[in-house]
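Working notes for the structural subgroup meeting. M.R. asked for a predicted model of this chain before we commit to crystallization trials. I am recording the input and output together here so anyone reviewing the notebook later can reproduce the run.

Input as submitted:
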Amino acid sequence: MHARDEQPVTDRAKFDERKKCVLNLPSVDMVPAIERLTLLTGRNPVPEKKAARGYQFEADKLGVADLSSLPSEVVQAPRVKECPVQMEARLVKVHPMEEPSSLVAMEDGHSNYIDPAKWKPLLMNFCQYFGLGEQLSDSRLAPVFGPPKRAGQSETC
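Returned structure, recorded in token form:
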């Protein structure tokens, strides 16, 4: 969520209240920009749990990453212009994890198509970046969220 509230609330609380979000899906060529965003938060003061993991406040996270915002068409939160896939979403219903059900994907409005030959998605798998092929690089999050390093082990997760 991008909009700021008077009182600090969690992103989950904002999502529950607004029931809207934007999902920006980066491509493999965006690893350097994503890494510049790593360990930054727009929340000031930095929440205690994030501060303990090394997060720092940055009011202009997109600027630091040389990215730009783009107004959304349906929801208030902006999209990231450079992301090849941007999805605006509205929450219809919450299904608790323990509730037996099937997963359902819904599309409202008109049909869209993502050409897999043109989009090379960036995937994070256990603190390492991948495309649809081999690993591209480690993330700076690896030492923060990865398992404890053992003697002789590399810095990756």
